[in-house]
Each structure stands twice: as C-alpha cells, then as structure tokens.
Amino acid sequence: MATLGTFLILAAFVVAAGAFAAGIAGGRRRSLALTDGAVGLSHVLTGLTLVLSSIIVYAFVVGDYSIKYVNSYSDSAMPLFFKLTSYWGGLDGSLLFWVTLLAIFASVAIHVNRERHRLLIPWVVAVIAATQMFFLFLMVIHNNPFETHLFSTPADGRGLNPLLQNFYMIIHPPMLYLGFVGMTIPFAFGLAALITGQLDDSWLRAVRRWTMTSWLFLSLGLALGGLWAYEELGWGGYWGWDPVENAGLLPWFTATAFLHSVMVQERRGMLKVWNVSLVIMTFFLTIFGTFMTRSGIVQSVHAFGEDRELAWMFTVFMIVILTVSFGLVIWRMPLLRARNELDSWASREAAFLANNWILLFSAFFVLFATMFPTISEALRGERLTVGPPFFDKWMLPIGLMLLLLTGIGPLLAWRKSAMSNMLHQFLWPAILGVVTTGVVMYLGANFWAAGLCFGLCAWVFTTIVQEFWRGSGVRQRATGTDRFTAMIGLFARSRRRYAGYIVHLGIVLIFFGFAGNGFKLEEQINLEPGQEVAIGDYVVKYDALKVTNDAQKQMITGHTTVTKEGAALGGMYPARWFFNGREDEPTTEVAIRRGFADDLYIVLAGYELETQRATFEVTVNPLVNWVWFGFGILGIGTILSLLPERAMAYAAAKSPAGAVTTALLMVFALGAFAPHAHAQHVENPQVVLLVPRSPDEKKARENIICMCGTCGRKRVAECTCGTADVMRQEIAALIAEGKSYDDIVDYYVTKYGSQEVLAAPIDKGFNRLAWFLPYAIGALGILVVGGVAVRWTRRGGDTTAPAAPADTAAHQAREARLDDELRDLD
Amino acid sequence: MSKKTVRVSLSALVIVGALSFLMYSSISEGAEYYKYVDEVMAEPAQWEGKRLRVHGYVLGDPLFNPTTLEYRFTIQANGKTVNAMYQGVVPDTFKKDAEVVVKGKLNGDTITVEKDGIMAKCPSRYEADALPAAVR
User: Fold this and answer.
1) Which of A89, A94, A493, A656 suits A403 as a labelling partner, its CA being 20 to 30 A distant?
2) CB neighbour burial string for A360-378, b if at least 16 within 10 angstroms, e if fewer
3) Which residues of chain B neighbour A584 with C-beta distances below 8 Å?
4) What's the alpha-carbon Rg for chain A, to the nearest Å?
C-alpha cells in the first residue's frame, strides 16, 4: 500500500509537471490540442489524488501502522469517524488533502469555464499545476505521508490527541482548507488574465463566485475554530490572537476587501490594479499563513514545531509568487488603467474604497503584530512580543469603523449622493444608533466601546430593515401583492444586493456578540463541598467530586448545582478527563449552559481528591451565542447570493400571490405550537443506567422520551441527562407500586397533558393518522415531483425540437457556450 | 505622473507613515521582552520592572495553596533559575518539568506573574515529534 502511495505521489508530480508544460505551450502557441492535453492531464491529476486519498484513508481504517503517519495519528481503539478524520491530523496528510482539494477545485473550475474563457484556460491550468507541483514536491522530498517504518512495524498507533477528538475538529480543518485552497482558483484566473492581457471584466465574473464560496468556507472555518476553542480549551473565550488563528484571518480580510471592490470594477471600471493585487495577496496570504504556522518561524504555544528545511522551501515559493505576480501586474499596468475617476467622496465607490483600506490595513496590522517577535529579533537581536491586549487595542476601533461603514456603504449612490438623499437614508438609522448608545451607556456599560458597538449594531440593523421595507413597499405598489411576497420578489430581482444585506445582518449579530465581551464576569475560586459562589445572577453550589472510569479514560467530575435568581436550573458537571496512555495531559471538559442572554461557563481548574476541595473557574459570557448565530446568518446570506439566478427567478415567477405570506405564517404558527422546552439537557457523565427490573419497566423506558426538551427526544433508556435520570426513578417508583406499563403511560400522558411524552403515538383511533400521514406525504411528494418532471421534459422537447439545426457539432459547442455564459450571469 | 497621482500617493504615504508611527509607538508600551531565564538572570537589575515573557522549565513540584490559589515555583533554563509567584488558574500542562513561558515583571529574584500569564507548551498539539518521551 505504502509503496503504491509513494509511487503515485511521484506519478502525480510528473503529471502536474506535464500539465504545467502543456498549459504554457498551449497558451503561447494558442494550440487547442496542447490546451486540451493540459486540461486532460489536470483531470488525470485529480483522479490520482483521489486514489492517493483513498489509499491513506484505507490505511487508517484498516490500521496499517507500518506507515509512520498512520502510526502517529491513530490507534485501533479510536472510533471509525476519528480514524477517517485523522487523515488531516498532521502536516503530511494535510498536504495531501490540500493537493486533492485543489485538484478537484481545478477540475471543476476548468470544466465550468472551458468555453467561456477559452483563452485563459491553458494559463489557468499552468498556474494551478505549478502550485500543485510545489505541494507534491514537498511531499516527495520532505513530508511523504506514505513513509514507512524501516525495521519493525508497531502493533498499534499512538492515537490522536484527545483535544482533537471533538466534533468541531472534524469539520473545522476541512472548512478552513476549502477556504484556503479555493483562493487558488481566483489567483490562477487573475494571473491568466494578466498573461493573456484579457483584462476586461470577464475574468472577474469567473472568479467572483469562487472567491465568495471560498470566503464562505473560510468564515465558517474561523467560526468553527472559535467554537472549538470555546468548548474544548476551557479558557472562557473563543479568539486569542494566536498566530495560528491569525493565519486564517489574514486571507479573510483581503478576500472580504476583494468581494467589495470587485463591485466597483464591475460598475465603474475602477480599481483594476487594486482588484488583481487583492486576488494575488489573498492567495499569497494563504500560503504565507501555512508557512507561518508550519515552519516554526513564529514562536507560539500553538505553533506546530520548527522546521528549517520546510521554511526555506516555502520562502522560495513565496518569493516566486510575489515576483511573478507583481512583475506581471507592473508589465500590464497600461491595460489596467481605470475607465472612470472618483467623482465624489459621498459615493458608494468611495465608501468601498475606505472599507478596502481598512480591511487591508487590518490584514497588514495583524500580519505585522504576528510577525513582530520575528521582526524584532531580526532587527534588534531581541525578541519582543505583543499580546492579545495590543491586538484588541487596535482591532477594536478598526472593527467599529468597519461596522460604521457597513451601514453607510450600501446606502450611498454610485458616483455621487445628493445631500437630501443622504438625509432620507440615514436619518432613522442615525437616531436609533445614537439612542441605543445612550441607553446602553445609561444602563451602565463599564466600557465605552461596548456601548458604541451596540449603537453601531442598531445603526446598521436599521439601515438593513429600512432597505427591505422601502424596497418591498415600492414593489408592493408596483405589483399589487402583499408585503412578504413583495419582499421575496425583491430578493429574486436583485438577489446580490439583498443577499448582501443578509450577510451584513450576520456581521451585525457577530458584533453584537463581540460587544457582550465588555460585560464578561469571571471568578476563580476554591471551594469545599457545600460551599457556593455567586456570579452575576447565578449561584453555583459545589456538591461533590466524583471519580469514574470508562474504557477510554478516567473522569474526575465536579458536581455543581446552579440557581439563577433563586430558581433551580439543575446540575452542571465540569470535568477533567485522563485518557489512557496520555495521563499526563488531562483534557478540560467545560460545562456550558447556553442561553440567548449569556452562557454560564464552568471549568474544573483544580482539585484535591483527599480533601474534596476543588478550584472552579466560573465565567458568565454575555451574548456569546450571537456570534455563532451571526456566522450562521452570514452563511445563509452567502449561499442565497450564490444560488443560480434562474432558480430564484423561477420560484418567484411561479409562486402565486400570497403564497409566501401563507407559508411564512404557517412556519410561525408551527413555531408557536412547538412544545415548550421544560428544562435543558445537560450531559451528566455520572448517570448510572440501572438494569430494568421488569419487562414493563424496560418497555416504559424504551417508549417514553426524555422531557428535558433539548436532547432531541431521546428515549429515557438512552438519555444521559439529569431529567432522564429523574424520570427513570419515577418509572422505577411506579413499577414498585405495582403499576403496569399502561398505567405508567397514563400517568405521563396526564402529567404532561398530551402524548408528547411518548416516543410514538398510541396506535389507535385518530392516532393512526399520524402513522399513516408520513407515508402519504412521501408518496404524494414522489407523484408531484414525477409529474412536474414529466411536464418539464415535454415542454423542453416542444421548444427545442423545431429549432434543432442540422449542424449538430457546431450547435453543441454553441449550446455549451451559452450554458457557460448563463451559469455566470448574475 | 499626473498631478493627481502625486497627490494620491503623497496622502497615501502620509497615512501609512502616520499609522506605522502610531503602531511602533504603541508597540513599545505594549511589547514584552521575550527572554530565557538565563538571559534575564545574567543581569537581573537591567530587567527589574520591565514587562517580560520568560521561557524556561518548571523546576520541581510547584507549591500550591488551595485556598488562595497561590502558586510558588521555580523555573530554570541553561543552569540559571528564577522564582515565580502566581495567583489563579494554571493550564493543564503546567507541572514539574513542563516547558513554560510566564508573563510578568521581575521584582528582585521573583517574577510576579500576571493574571492568566502562564503558558505551558502543549506537548503534542498536533505533531508527533513533540510527544512526551513516555508516549514515544
């Protein structure tokens, strides 16, 4: 297996080199045959990398520990899921994963644009192939994931670091990689445009979607990384300005800048040099970020170890990128002249320009501060470091300025905004912003920036609502429908604009969450069993310390009970887990009680088993969940904006007037009737599942669900939260009283007032409908979809049949080209 | 070059210059010197009262007072040692022989570590090379 892998990596390198050469030759000679060859080779490369990935995944699954990489990052006891994801647990596999993703992206991008950007394609292939060659080269000579042990094959692997055995760690790295790797495609198109001189705006249209998709992945990757840190590392925060985190943030800044400035070029033909530079910089920063975290150039607690050789290879590659790309930009400068000039500072392009400068400055600043220790060591021979407070001090005003511009930019007119127009647009947002700031300050914000942040959130939020309201009002009058239908129609008509507002809404929510940081409460305290600590509205009482074991680990759990303003909220169980074989690296298992207003976050920081004393770090994190929620909205907005235009237009055209409103009302109605959450599901690792003593008890446990409301209706027999435990005791008590299964069911149905408590409705009378309905709906759905499909195909046949020309080859080419153009049209 | 180009580049230069100056000046108040124990203790008087990040290894078991959460420990590097005092919660990996970086100020022969100022190297964050000897 390993030999095959090593051989295939070499083969992949050769194929990439072939694609590179064929691409350049095809581009220079304008030879269709050579270009087709290059495209073919790049598809072959995709196939090869997929085979390589399958081999490594297979090695992980079967546990081929003769391969060093498999041996280092997995062991036989790990669940299958983590074995699969160990693929990107270390550097060697990450490189392979990178190349695989890049190859897939390249194949898709080349295929989609093959007709429309015929001239660019050979160069695109060449640039991507060059990047792939670099990573394959690294694998060939430095980090071969298929390297084997020379002498003895270990019986078992070393296992994956327990910190990484977390749900978010499964999806966080691939998300970030998708974002990083995706930025290569815009770069390749940008360079191809520079080389061929095809510098009209058409290359921008090809890359805008790619950049947006990659940007979405990057954003989600950053959010998931934050969520992981928050849940797993136990220091109460989600962002610590660590070099590794910053590496992901740098290209995010420049990509965000690009997504804005690209509009200026599309609309006004300005900022051409700027846009192509942003694309280059974004790509450069993805490589630089990888270099920074992987080569040990930046000292960090989290850096991945020092590696001089790797550092040199990356440096050479980065120098090549910069010289070639900016060399080309300078060479093509005459073609990049702007069509227009800036008319006024009160225009949308000026606001976008300001936004770009700030974003670029943020990237520059973060880069500078992250590299500062290295820079100062090089310049002064003395290692100076800067910490999170320094980042905060700078990024806080920068962030607030960006938030302010988020409200201003979209409302200004292109070219020049008249004073009266600005007053009309900004009066209400400004009033609400100022009032909110005032109210928050009056209510006692201990920190000016938090108050200002709330005010700016209100400001941007009002501008967005106002846009939707006014826009839908206009459309309502024009089309004569109701408000909601008008709003959806508005969306379908200028989707980019309104989807953009939704992304901005996400940003507002994220900042709203950030502002909560200004009200964070923190308490570190050592308690005896029975003692309690008050923090904010919460009182945390420490009950006991318990030690338990399972197959994988030993668990030390602090049992606490929490009350809020006198009302009992239930138990929380912060713990330390000692994984077998890694006893010297306990993991911190944070107990988090999530809420819209705040999170209660308890960490078991220390303990003494003899005395039962324990140290707790209790944090109240206000509004933190809005950050995650905001990222979700941002994702939805981006996806809406990426949806094909036709889908939206079709939906809007076909839906009868009023349908949207009805649908929305139904959703709200369902939401209102949804069962009320009774308590919260809080995992209790100490819950002991006693064996049921009678068949009736077993049956009851399997047919009655946990009523905590948040475990997703688990059966009482399976749920591990405190509520389920109480319910099991209730059932046991009823059984002891001599009640039968039916009596227990009756008891619960009366107690909760409905059959909601049952895993499945009682199978009789009206309830049979509930059993029948899902099948009926499913069958109906199949019928409808089938019917529509038949109708569409028939209609399609009607229109194309008479128009079919005799010359089919030329016709197909034209069709493909038309398809291409339509796909990119928005 | 047109007049406009000159104007634009001049103002860009001024903005960049001003920001760089601001950054540099704020760094000198926010920055910390990153030193190994022996570098600091070679001439302790020179570092008295300055913001430091001191890199070394924990020597012996740290003393811990559970009621006040106070830690007293010694860190060493290249044969020199320095005492450290800390109050609060320490990372999981902080213990005897751990490689740590502490953030704080030097008073005499003791570093007063600031809040959350102890960073212990994550021994095997991702890379197998950094695994503790026992596991390797």
Assistant:
1) A493
2) bbbbbbbbbbbbbbeebee
3) 95, 132, 134
4) 30
pLDDT digits (tens, 9 = 90+) for A552-593: 788 899 999 999 888 888 889 999 888 877 777 778 889 999
CA distance B102 to chain A (A): 12
Contact: A305, B130; criterion CB under 8 Å:
yes
In a domain, B89, yes or no: yes
Q: How close does chain A come to B37, measured CA to CA in Å?
A: 13
Indicate whether B40 and B93 sit together in one domain: yes
Residue keyed to tokens 């109050």? B87
E strand or H helix that includes residue B56: strand B51-65
Residues A594-635: tens digit of each pLDDT: 888 899 999 988 888 888 888 899 999 999 999 999 999 999
Q: What mean pLDDT value characterizes chain A?
A: 82
Mutation site, A69, A228, A241, A524, interface B, largest B CB count within 10 A: A524
Q: Which of B4, B125, B132 sits opposite A584 (nearest CB)?
A: B132
Concatenating the DSSP letter of every residue in A635-661 gives HHHHHHHHS-HHHHHHHHHHSPTTHHH
Does the beta-carbon distance from B32 to A384 stay under 8 Å? yes
Instruction: Check whether residue B74 and residue B101 sit in a common domain.
Output: yes
Contact A607, A615 (CB under 8 A): yes
Signed CA dihedral, A38, A43, A45, A48: sign only: negative
Say yes or no: B8 and B43 in one domain. no
Contact of A359 with A253, CB cutoff 8 Å: yes
Q: Report chain B residues whose CB lies below 8 A from the CB of A353.
A: none
A153-188 pLDDT, tens digit each: 777 777 777 777 777 777 888 888 899 999 999 999
Q: Do B129 and A305 touch (CB under 8 A)?
A: yes
Which CATH number covers residue B111? Answer: 2.40.50.140
User: How many whole angstroms separate alpha carbon A39 and alpha carbon A34?
Assistant: 9
Compare CB distances from B30 to A299, A390, A524 and report the shortest one's residue.
A390
For residue B100, is it within any domain?
yes
Same domain, B20 and B83: no
Of A491, A459, A463, nearest in space to A649 by CA: A491
Q: Does residue B136 lie within any of the structural domains?
A: no
Specify whether B47 is located in the same domain as B13: no
Domain enclosing residue B22, as ranges: 1-31
Tell me if A364 sits within 8 A of A432, measured CB to CB.
no
Domain count, chain B: 2
Q: Average pLDDT for residues A768-775, to the nearest whole number?
A: 59
In angstroms, the separation between the Cα of residue B100 and the nearest Cα of chain A is 9
pTM of the model: 0.79
Classify residue B99: in a domain, yes or no. yes
Can you say whether the dihedral through the CA atoms of A514, A515, A516, A519 is positive or negative? positive
Both B89 and B39 in a single domain? Answer: yes
Contacts of B31 in chain A (CB under 8 A): 372, 376, 384-386, 390
